[in-house]
Every structure is written in structure tokens, then in C-alpha cells.
Amino acid sequence: MASVVPLKEKKLMDVKLTELPSWILMRDFTPSGIAGTFRRGYDRYYNKYINVKKGSIAGVNMVLACYVLFNYCRCYKELKHERRRKYH
After folding, report:
1. Which GO biological process categories is it annotated with (predicted)?
2. What would the pLDDT profile of 64-85 be if each residue is shown by its tens digit?
3. Spatial CA neighbour of 26 closest among 43, 6, 40
């Protein structure tokens, strides 16, 4: 028989779509809670891609891809404005 896990302790991938709003409201949105979330995410990323015996360039490539995507989204308004301009 499967044990019942409280909604607050479920991971995002285990939450059903109908439970999602109440699950989001149960999250810790204090500054220390948000900092802890970022810290856990960094630790998971570091242990999975950087701190390994046979590492590859994949972990660094993901950081660079996120950086490029973030800057593209940040500058999209200016890039969109210049894309229709004729240069002749």
C-alpha cells in the first residue's frame, strides 16, 4: 500500500494540476526561503555537473546558454525594433 505524502512535501513533478495553486501557496516566500531554494538548486547543479569524476563541458555550456538566453530576453525590445530597419 502506498503511503500518502502531504501536499507540502511533494515535489513539483509529483503535484497534480488541480493541486498546483494550493501547492504554490504553501511554498516559503520569505527571503530566507527563497535563498534556500536557490542554494539547493545550485548544490544540485554543482553535484550533478561540476563535482564529478569524469566531467565534461556540458555543465559550463548550460550556464553559458542560460546567460545568452537571459540577455536575449532582456534586450528583445531593442532587437525587435532594429530588425525591421532597412540598411540600404
Report:
1. proton motive force-driven mitochondrial ATP synthesis
2. 999 999 999 998 888 777 666 6
3. 6
